[in-house]
């Protein structure tokens, strides 16, 4: 038993070492990728349910290695978070997103740019200044910038975060709660925090053929948003039948593969004059 124990330990140690080595390699590659413009935002349209027009996009980062292929964010955002590279990455996406939205604005299309903000970024003491700086440099009207924060980020240190959120709001940007419904159980923060928009997580997106309880959750979120006067973005819309259950008198935006996958900026331009009737 002792011997096999040692054997297993050795095996464990080897696999630990190779995992650590792979991680270190990934970190180095990511550091390099940030310098060589391999990290780029893609954009996914957010369509106004009423007008069928694209009124916003969410920036979703991609790694396009020089040797080809696409690496999705789930494979490098966690490493970026652990190593602090997320600050540099986040700033890059924020800058490119703002410059892009300004370009669309200059060509006659007012498109709100939604940027994902990670916990690490949000905790930086100068985060508000960074946002202010990027708005200033890009000349994007603050009303066309939206910051997406998850419930867990918002709730991590509620009292301190209220101050941070108020600070950000004072710049004139909008604040959205990402993956709404998947994190915190308490909803009281919605009243106390200067939030503008709820993004209903795609795990709640069901259609007319779904169980009544699934539909009930979506209806409850819509009712909550309505009474708190919050905008709603429904994520993960893949089928027309999912739109039927989304009855809201507030501003309702739809986002999902039904309209478009996240794509490079050049593919968004032509979509901006299109009407997505459903
Ligand atoms: P998220 O913020 O919840 O983004 C929505 C994810 O759902 C995106 O995955 C998007 O491509 C995907 N999606 C959109 N419509 C549909 C649909 O109809 N069906 C399905 N099945 N999926 C859909 P993606 O692009 O792989 O991003 C994954 C996560 O990575 C994001 O989740 C976000 O948490 C993170 N992320 C992406 N870009 C950034 C960034 O610039 N900064 C930070 N901090 N995180 C980012
Ligand atoms: Ca998001
Ligand atoms: Ca989300
Ligand atoms: Ca998510």
Describe this structure in words.
This is EAL domain-containing protein. Residues 23-276 form the EAL domain. By secondary structure, this protein is an alpha/beta fold. It has 10 helices and 8 strands. It has helices spanning 2-35, 77-83, 85-106, 119-123, 127-138, 151-155, 158-169, 189-192, 212-227, 265-271; strands at residues 39-48, 54-63, 112-116, 145-150, 174-180, 197-200, 231-234, 252-254. Strands 1-2-3-4-5-6-7-8 form an 8-stranded mixed barrel, surrounded by 4 helices. Strand 6, helix 9 (212-227) and strand 7 (231-234) form a beta-alpha-beta unit. Helix 2 crosses helix 3 and helix 3 runs parallel beside helix 5. The longest helix is centred in the N-terminal third of the chain and has 34 residues, at 2-35. Residues 44, 59-61, 72-74, 77, 90, 93, 116, 118, 178-179, 202, 236-238, 256-257, 262 line the site of ligand C2E.
What is shown here, in short?
It comes from Paraglaciecola mesophila. 45% of the residues lie in helices and 18% in strands.
Into which percent range does the helicity of residues fall? Answer: 40-55%
Cα-based radius of gyration, to the nearest Å: 21 Å
- The count of β-strands is 8
The backbone outline, from C-alpha atoms, is globular
Protein name: EAL domain-containing protein
Keywords: Phosphoprotein
């Amino acid at each position: 038993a002792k011997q096999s124990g040692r054997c297993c330990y050795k095996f464990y140690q080897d696999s630990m070492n190779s995992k650590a080595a792979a991680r270190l390699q990934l970190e180095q590659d990511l550091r390099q990728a940030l310098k060589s413009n391999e990290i780029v935002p893609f954009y996914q349209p957010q369509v106004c349910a009423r007008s069928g027009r694209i009124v916003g996009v969410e920036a979703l980062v991609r790694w396009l290695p020089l040797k080809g292929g696409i690496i999705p964010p789930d494979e490098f955002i966690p490493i970026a978070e652990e190593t602090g590279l997320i600050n540099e990455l986040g700033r890059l996406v924020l800058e490119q997103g703002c410059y892009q939205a300004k370009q669309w604005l200059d060509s006659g299309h007012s498109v709100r740019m939604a940027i994902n903000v990670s916990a690490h970024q949000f905790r930086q003491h100068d985060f508000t200044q960074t946002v202010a700086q990027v708005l200033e440099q890009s000349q994007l009207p603050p009303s066309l910038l939206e910051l997406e924060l998850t419930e867990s980020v918002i709730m991590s240190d509620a009292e301190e975060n209220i101050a941070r959120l108020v600070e950000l709001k004072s710049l004139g940007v909008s604040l959205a709660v990402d993956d709404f419904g998947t994190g915190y159980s308490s909803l009281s923060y919605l009243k106390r925090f200067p939030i503008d928009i709820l993004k209903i997580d795609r795990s709640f997106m069901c259609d007319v053929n779904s169980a009544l309880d699934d539909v009930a959750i979506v209806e409850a979120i819509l009712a909550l948003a309505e009474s708190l006067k919050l905008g709603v973005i429904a994520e993960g819309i893949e089928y027309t039948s999912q739109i039927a259950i989304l009855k809201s008198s507030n501003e309702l935006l739809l986002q999902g593969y039904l309209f478009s996958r996240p794509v490079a900026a050049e593919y968004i331009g032509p979509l901006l004059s299109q009407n997505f009737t459903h």
